[in-house]
Amino acid sequence: MTTKVLLLEDDAGVRFTFTMALQDAGYDVKSVASCAEAIAALSDIDTGILILDLKIGEDMSLPVADYAALMRPDMPVVYITGSRLFTGGELFGLSRNIRWVLHKPVNLPDLVSMIDYVAGQMVTAEAC
Length: 128
Prior knowledge:
The protein is of the alpha/beta class. The chain has helices spanning 12-24, 35-42, 62-71, 108-127, and strands spanning 4-8, 28-32, 49-53, 55-56, 59-60, 77-81, 98-103. The strands form two sheets. Strands 2-1-3-6-7 form a five-stranded parallel β-sheet, sandwiched between helices. Helix 1 packs across helix 4 (108-127) and helix 2 runs parallel beside helix 3 (62-71).
């Protein structure tokens, strides 16, 4: 079964690049540009990986991670950020689903490897 990925990124060029890299790696990617779109898309996805850009315009994507924690408690969240906020690892205490934080600029092979790793953890957890 193909792992689903929901990607929230407000920069259209970055969103396209990340989507193409993940699709080329075999992931079923749905990409959105706003927190409202991400929350709506979570209603259609029963399992998978959530990738969030921390800053979406002037907003933060933390409410999306909170919603995912309530509605999809087993869905891992990977944050990608160019922000200097939460540099001490504080994000991990803000939502129980957050697994990793990557800092921009993100090397595409590193992104794919991180998502491969998280997807592997999901398979291992399902097998237990």
